[in-house]
Amino acid sequence: MPRNPEIKTEIQPKVPRTLQGTECIWHEFWKLRNRHPCAPGVRARVRLSQPQKENRQFALETGGGHQFVVDDIEGGSGSQPIELLAGALAGCVAFEVIGILRRNKHQRVTGYEVRVEADQAERPPKTFVAVRIHHIVSGESVDPAAVSEAIRMVEETCVLQALLRHTATITTTFEVVKEIAGGPADTPASGAALTSELASSNALGRGSGQT
Known about the structure:
Blueprint: H1 22-28, H2 30-35, E1 44-48, E2 58-62, E3 67-70, H3 81-104, E4 108-120, E5 128-140, H4 144-155, H5 159-164, E6 169-178, E7 193-197, E8 201-202, E9 205-206
Parallel strand pairs: 5-6
Antiparallel strand pairs: 1-2, 2-3, 4-5, 6-7, 8-9
Helix pairs in contact: 3-4
């Protein structure tokens, strides 16, 4: 069939696709990933939120696309980076412990809280030198032995505890608050809570504690 000379074929230039959401941060890290192909897939970045000002407020974005503000103590508009480290430790421990209690130990946990306090060295780099982790577990007939074992298991697997153990002594305690079926939970002051101290750990090894 003869080709019609009046029909012209035009090749449209390819328009680059605009990256949306979490694709943006992952795309910007592709060079780093090629350089270190064995690096784990944990990503985060901070950007100066108000470059025209003298403050040090940053917008932090994680690889999952979550954003929040970090600031110094003078600005006070967001969490300080060192506070995020303490919060990350609490979250790292809590995620694992609650999973073990519910899936492996079959405990009926109705409330769970992890508190972290840390002391810093007086001189830079002001590393954590003492860390206290306290677990508060509430529920019906929660077995303190199950709580103790779950916490001990997590001490061996929590990446942040492993990192902090190089500079800090870590002391872990917990209390179990027993709930009355159909009623409010007893408070530790009423004698319904059992507080125990687990083995401490530090840069040199593990010490003995009491349960």
